[in-house]
Amino acid sequence: MGSRWVRLFSFLSMMVVLSAGTIYITRGTLPMPVLPEVEVPEPVFEGKPLPSEDSFREFIHFLNSELDSTHTVGAAYTIVHKGEVVYTGTYGERNREDHQQVDEHTLFRLASVSKGFAGVLASLLEQDGVFSLSDRVVDRYPGFTLKDSLSTADLTIRHLLSHTSGLVPYAFDNLVEAGQDLYTIIDRLDEVDISAPPGELYGYQNVMFSMIDPIARRTTGVPYQVLLQEKIFRPLGMEDASAGPVDLEKNPNMAYPHVSSGSGYVPLDPREGYYNVLPAAGVNASISDMGQWLLGLLGYKSQWMPDAVLDSITTPLIYTPLKWRYTRYWKPFRERHYSLGWRIYYYQGREIVYHGGYIRGYRAEIAFCPSEDVGVALLMNSSNSLASRFVPTFFDLFPE
Q1: Which of 22, 162, 224, 367 has the smallest count of CB within 10 Å of its CB?
Q2: 43, 70 contact by CB (below 8 A)
């Protein structure tokens, strides 16, 4: 315990907010003596008072130290526990050129973390009787064809959302990156080789996964972006969240993407890459939004998310192979599956529901553990190894 208090004192010494050459302590921290004026370092830390749990304090200490040592441009993170957002922190800049600071409402791209929203939306629509996840795709999207007639006939909505369509992985991502319209790409899916019958083999997809967009639109008559607003964002109080490039780019509090160069990170103009597959990669959100999202996923918005929806998105559907580049910072574990837009890991004796996201200049991580009633999320506008260490480190430090 003594070593933790030493770490805590060191961390509180770091948790200062620097502005216009003055130094003051974030609200709720211990008083400290006035220090002489020093050159203001960049970036700065912002955050709520520290949570009481020692494990959270140790994790926040780790996280802020790593954000600094990895020269991360900007980031925001949150911890939800037992029905409360116990900590939200922000770090660094939205744009290296104008030095505007990240805050709780700064908008980031979520990339593949968007897939979790698609899984929940589809489950909510099923609960509303709009369709069943067991419905055949050909019945909900007439004219749909694959290379094999049996696969065409057997493919269901559940297969789309669990990456078990049987198509070769990442089918037609090259066309997505070329900016082609989703409907145009769907019309060419009969050209793609098939590796296995639907439901038998995991193969990560963006185009096939995103077919939930036109299916939902055809069955409800409502655009996918509007369904997200009506069924998820508004009910949860996710005031900054949106889908698609327009709402991101018109928001003055947008985090610009940054990439590493020989002299550090440089900002990029926002690009529309992968916004043509909204369910797979098209959601934008702030860290304030992510806290509300985690509360909903942990069952604290029961009037919004029935237990059947939570069960649906956390039920393992297919075993997934281990990819070292994604799990090299996790301690050894064997059980890993995919559900509806979510990965299910059995790690440190816990079932962890997880997804990560990457698109050029952005990283996003989210995880929650229903049995421990805890969840975390991280948003970044630059990419480095910290994103891959964020979730496993949290659960390594969280007491059993």
Answers
A1: 22
A2: no
CA distance 15 to 389: 21
Q: According to the model, what pLDDT value does residue 326 have?
A: 67
Cβ neighbours of residue 337 closer than 8 Å, sequence gap 6 or more: 316, 317, 318, 319, 320, 343, 344
Strand partners, 365: 356, 378
For tokens 């010494």, the residue is 13
Alpha-carbon distance 131 to 150, whole Å?
22
At position 360, the amino acid (one-letter code) is: R
Q: Which residues of the chain have pLDDT under 50?
A: 1-45, 50
What are the tokens at 373? 């009633």
User: CA nearest 163: which of 172, 155, 154?
Assistant: 155
Secondary structure class of 395 (helix, strand, coil): helix
Confidence (pTM): 0.86
What gap in Å lies between CA 292 and CA 83, rounded to an integer? 10
Q: Is the peptide bond before 43 cis (omega within 30 degrees of 0)?
A: yes
| Cβ-defined contacts of 170-175 (< 8 Å, 24+) | 170/204, 170/205, 170/206, 171/205, 171/207, 171/208, 172/207, 173/206, 173/207, 175/207
147-206: pLDDT as tens digits = 999 999 999 999 999 999 999 999 999 999 999 999 999 999 999 999 999 999 999 999
By DSSP bridging, strand 16-19 and strand 22-25 are antiparallel
Classified by CATH at the fold level, domain 46-120+223-397 comes out as: Beta-lactamase (3.40.710)
Q: What is the mean pLDDT of the chain?
A: 87
Instruction: Delimit the domains of the chain by residue range.
Output: 46-120+223-397
Rounded to the nearest 10°, the torsion over CA 275, 279, 285, 290 is -160
Contact 344, 316 (CB under 8 A): yes
One-letter amino acid for residue 280 of the chain: A
What is the tens place of the pLDDT at every residue in 32-85? 333 333 333 344 445 555 455 677 989 999 999 999 999 999 999 999 999 999
C-alpha span between 137 and 198 (Å, rounded): 12
Cα distance between residue 242 and residue 244, in whole Å:
7
**Residue 30 CB coordination number (10 Å):** 11
45-47/84-92 β-pairing: antiparallel
